[in-house]
TrEMBL record, chains A, B:
InterPro entries: aa-tRNA-synt_IIb, aa-tRNA-synth_II, aa-tRNA-synth_II/BPL/LPL, Anticodon-bd, Anticodon-bd_dom_sf, Pro-tRNA-ligase_IIa, Pro-tRNA-ligase_IIa_arc-type, Pro-tRNA_ligase_II_C. Belongs to the class-II aminoacyl-tRNA synthetase family. ProS type 3 subfamily. This is Proline--tRNA ligase. Residues 35-282 form the Aminoacyl-transfer RNA synthetases class-II family profile domain. Its EC number is 6.1.1.15. Pfam families: HGTP_anticodon, ProRS-C_1, tRNA-synt_2b. The keyword Ligase applies. It comes from Mycoplasmopsis caviae. NCBIfam families: proS_fam_I. One of its GO terms (biological process) is prolyl-tRNA aminoacylation. One of its GO terms (molecular function) is ATP binding. Homodimer. Its main location: cytoplasm.
Amino acid sequence: MKELEKITPMEQDFAKWYTDVVKQGNLIAYGPVKGTIVFKPNSYGIWEQIQKNLNEYFAEKGIQNVYLPLLIPEKLFNKEKDHIAGFNPELATITKVGDKELDEKVFIRPTSEVLFADLFKNSIESYKDLPIIYNQWANVVRWEKTTNPFLRSREFLWQEGHTCHSSAIEARKFTKGMISTYAKFLKNYLAIPTIIGKKTPKEKFAGACSTYTVEAMMKDGRALQSGTSHYLAQNFSKQFDIQFKNENNNLDYVYQTSWGVSTRLLGAIIMTHGDNRGIIMPPRVAPIQIDVLELFANKNKEVHVYCENLYKELSRKFRVRLDSSDKGPGFKASNSEIQGVPIRIEVGPRDIENKSVTVVRRDTLEKIKINNENIKEQVEIILNEIHDNLYAQAEKRLNENTVFVDNYDEFKAQIKNHKFVVAPFCCLDSAEEKIKNETGATTRCLPKKFDKPLEKHKCIFEDCRKETNRYVVFARAY
Amino acid sequence: MKELEKITPMEQDFAKWYTDVVKQGNLIAYGPVKGTIVFKPNSYGIWEQIQKNLNEYFAEKGIQNVYLPLLIPEKLFNKEKDHIAGFNPELATITKVGDKELDEKVFIRPTSEVLFADLFKNSIESYKDLPIIYNQWANVVRWEKTTNPFLRSREFLWQEGHTCHSSAIEARKFTKGMISTYAKFLKNYLAIPTIIGKKTPKEKFAGACSTYTVEAMMKDGRALQSGTSHYLAQNFSKQFDIQFKNENNNLDYVYQTSWGVSTRLLGAIIMTHGDNRGIIMPPRVAPIQIDVLELFANKNKEVHVYCENLYKELSRKFRVRLDSSDKGPGFKASNSEIQGVPIRIEVGPRDIENKSVTVVRRDTLEKIKINNENIKEQVEIILNEIHDNLYAQAEKRLNENTVFVDNYDEFKAQIKNHKFVVAPFCCLDSAEEKIKNETGATTRCLPKKFDKPLEKHKCIFEDCRKETNRYVVFARAY
């Protein structure tokens, strides 16, 4: 194992801090094709926990998992014009197999709307077959120009859900319900607070009628889009001819939704909770929740036996790792810290004498002596406290750094000041473009909680200044 | 939902039977690129159970899950000559992104030895970092000419494990241990008996030193290779320069293994257990273990309430589905049967009166009246009996249809007779080739249980007829 290296302080250089944390936390290696990454056990383990727990939420909603092909023939992809226009520049294209040219180009899926549309077309006859609520866990490829581990890579992992409904009302309800599910999941499992809202027409998904989003605030004040849910209306069903017989025995096109979260969430975890010692894993998705560290065990067999028993006992309920190597106590502690393990339990000869162990919290670095009865119960309480503390810290930061402005000068100042800025805004594409060029900020969403504001304000955009009751969150974003 | 159609009897046309079962069992749809398939909930659900349970076996062996990129640059792939020669004709090749030509061709992984080699090269310093025992669940692409759902498709899902060890002995032991794990898994979860053995030099994995296999017998007597484990020796580590410092502080190349099972297992399940009514799901990996069928429920509210409660109660322990639709009893039973659900519980008004329910076993079609106390316990016993029965049937068939021969005439007759034929054989590549051309049979393995035969026999191959103590299983194979 390589020696632990230093992490650049986030105050000094946030981007460098992020890269250092990712590298030192034993999270990834770079793949041989530029912009691809290897998910090592310490990051893939988080993704496995996300899959497991989100699948439970999905099962409650009657969602069924499926798996569709990686490969999309050119003709199929070209059916929905906005969709192909949105994705074309990033499409990895297979033209050959071995030494043979293919007759038709084949794309690697950047998302699977057209594949699901093709499937649905042949699966539905009447309203009795509806709704269909499918999800898949899959890899997708988008050939991005600039890449960053977890946040933007040429291949990433995600879940993408796709549904068909017999009415627009039901489909819209499902779209909104899913964005709430994501917000709940991020809160309950990742300890990440979010702003729920609707995307502006400019920022919505290519091919969607409307897009809902959960936006999280990173420690540098930038926004990270953490999950989206799209109401596709009949945009795809009309192009792909997905019809059903309704209750009146008339043919109609189905109403569709799609929705997803991706391995970006791993980036969100790092930049929401991490500190200058590295990543801090939210306990409920941490691949390792507890490190048991044998201190000076080579000199004391009693410590070794004790730790092995403690490891076995805790493993019944938690994801635990035992470090019984011959490294020094300082190295073992640093190694646990830099990998973000929520709790480490240090056991040395004196602890055995005193019938106690030392628990160290990764979030507060607090050392807690606990007696060695009911360790499991005490540890469970501490893990929940860590989750609650991480969430509370993040929520406080989000609230303190979200500000309302009603004029463009203040807007620019607050964006420069790394804030989430809520502003009255008419949502013209050209205005968004200009604001982005001038300030680096993009619209994140029309937040749900400002749905019905009490009073109208003038649009922030100086060429507009019309009265509006639309409020939009702006921020610089990942 | 479409009307249930008929399944061709397997005695009449086994290939047609298989296609019908796959289609009628609601297992797949065909993808838009020829040779690709959609895994629908009823087949993807089996794969999820396989993942979950095999992951538990893997965790016991200290295996860590990771995820490596889909994309392999041409240069990297070309480093191991046997490996590239084996895979080149089937490699899907990305040459363009959007409208731009790439500088270097990129292959879609057909397997990931070179990606893992590239990762290991930068991860290992000394023997203290070894062994490394990684696994990934992933999709791979091999552009096969003839395809068949689950058995041979252009994209399939699998797990591929890759390990590095400090000694040849340890790596060989791991290779053999994994093939035993697969055999145990197939027995305990899929109810499939297998013959464990070593591949002949001609049939081993491209780039391996030796390959071990588990071979299962399908109902038509053909063999299905169901899992493989490869001892790679230093073949890749030398090409990719994966070195470590051993205990004597000298540099050495690591010894490697790789091993995998794939969604072929779904084909194995169908062709091992299925009958003329369709697939029969082995209970421990069935996505739905129990169908609760409300009979005449629209006329009887008591039945409906009873079934809902039964569904809730059983769901605590099993994967259950409730059919409370307005279809007739016959349709509901057929629908459950054709999807291979191990048990259906039929509840009609009379059952409520008699305080009993009717359990129908999918394997034997036996109807069992059970009283409605302790249903959970009774159902668990029946599910275990179904597993045991499926295994016993398959084992009996395997034993009865595996024959020993010592001359080529009998060999040809028994192959024609759809048997697994064990024969003395010197394992010359050219002899294998000729036998394959003449009989359609390939070598499946040198079986473990014939490792040390009591007596030598003459090689089956007529141009050879040397005395040998090698025994080889031949069969026609998928």
